[in-house]
Amino acid sequence: MRTLSRAATRSFNALRSAFLASSKEGQIIDATAESFHETLQQCKNSTVLIYFYADWCGPCRMVGPALKKAMKEAGNLVLIKVNVDEVQEVAAIYDINNLPSILMMSKNQVTERLIGMKDERTIRDFVDRASKMNRG
């Protein structure tokens, strides 16, 4: 059964990679502990955004829609959403102490952080910088 599970996981990951490569809109992935690391590995040569949030966080409920809109406009990016209440170990790895937090990662290194409540323009500019890194 475990072999089937690994095979199914590999198939899913291959399909997801193909979809991401052909997507014209930014791709948003809700992370689990397992899928987070797999997705980062698949995107290791790209710039990726990681959005740390919680359902109870008021500013997160305002930043989330603005981030989603900016991702649709950006195109060539992957956004990994991490609910800190469900995936605490990932939040601990990146020393997330404030919500919302958005990390920009390039080649598996954090290059920039956007922390706290931000307006739509600031979020869009942050996403645009990440998108330009993928194009360049």
UniProtKB/TrEMBL annotation:
GO molecular function, one term: protein-disulfide reductase activity
Domain Thioredoxin: 10-132
Cellular component terms per the entry's GO annotation: cytoplasm
Keyword presence, Disulfide bond: yes
Coiled-coil boundaries: none
Superkingdom, natural source: Eukaryota
Pfam families for this protein: Thioredoxin
Keywords: Disulfide bond, Electron transport, Transport
Name the record gives this protein: Thioredoxin-like protein
Organism: Basidiobolus meristosporus CBS 931.73
Lineage: Eukaryota, Fungi, Fungi incertae sedis, Zoopagomycota, Entomophthoromycotina
